[in-house]
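We were asked to recover a plausible sequence for a given structure. The inputs and outputs are reproduced exactly as logged, with field labels preserved.

PROBLEM: sequence recovery
POSITIONS: 259
GIVEN STRUCTURE:
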């Protein structure tokens, strides 16, 4: 049985870590490189960086942040936001990231998943999925729709279909973010997470809604997620990564323990 992972998420806007609720009302909370170092020292398994306005603003990727982070931490981290080509992926990997997360660009051009997997290996390509619950329809039978550009653009694409298609195209992992749960600290979207986890064979990272260690235990043990993405509950000092991992370990969830 593989160990489950705890992955702090750093949303970056104009060079600063930021946090909002349901993709709105963001506030700046710190320097992303310093926060990355802080989480590394706490025992995080991996980190995720998202440049949350790069795609909507049509800006370039944050190479300087990637490079400085790689100089300060020694755990895997992935980078998303503003990555539109295989050359963009190459630049991020050469700057020190281990994985690339594609979201809006993959919806617009699914071939980028395959091209990236062929160039760098499936394990490097993470599909980011921003998902919103909608009324089930012929076009969206699962009742969950893909939304891109930082939650701004509804695509009329069924989330369950897209997850399976991305795996077929070569994605090595899925980061599944519920827009409805994002930042609420009321728990992950369990139905969505279970549905996607059961539909694919690649690892699924649950994202959006973690507020307590119990929320993380539930999504890992009951909904089949391979990792839990966290933000608000640690960004604002409510819990530490060590406290979360100790709780999960004591609850019977297999974790990588460094102490």
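RECOVERED SEQUENCE:
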């Amino acid at each position: 049985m593989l160990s489950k992972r705890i992955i702090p998420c750093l949303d970056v806007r104009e060079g600063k870590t930021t946090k909002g609720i349901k993709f709105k009302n963001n506030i700046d909370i710190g320097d992303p490189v310093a926060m990355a170092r802080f989480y590394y020292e706490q025992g995080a398994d991996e980190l995720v960086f998202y440049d949350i306005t790069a795609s909507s603003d049509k800006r370039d990727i944050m190479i300087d942040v990637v490079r400085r982070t790689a100089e300060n931490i020694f755990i895997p981290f992935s980078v998303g936001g503003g990555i539109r080509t295989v050359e963009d992926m190459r630049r991020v990997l050469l700057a020190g990231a281990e994985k690339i997360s594609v979201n809006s660009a993959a919806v617009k051009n699914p071939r980028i998943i395959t091209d990236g997997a062929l160039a760098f290996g499936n394990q490097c390509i993470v599909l980011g999925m921003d998902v919103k619950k909608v009324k089930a329809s012929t076009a969206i039978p699962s009742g969950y729709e893909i939304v891109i550009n930082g939650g701004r653009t509804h695509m009329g694409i069924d989330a369950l279909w897209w997850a399976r298609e991305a795996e077929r195209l070569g994605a090595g992992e899925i980061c599944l973010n519920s827009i409805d749960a994002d930042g609420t600290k009321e728990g992950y979207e369990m139905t969505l997470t279970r549905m996607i986890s059961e539909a694919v064979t690649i690892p699924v990272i649950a994202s959006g809604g973690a507020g307590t260690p119990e929320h993380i235990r539930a999504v890992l043990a009951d909904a089949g997620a391979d990792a839990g993405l966290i933000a608000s509950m640690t960004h604002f000092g409510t819990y530490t990564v060590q406290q979360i991992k100790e709780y999960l370990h004591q609850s019977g969830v297999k974790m990588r323990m460094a102490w």
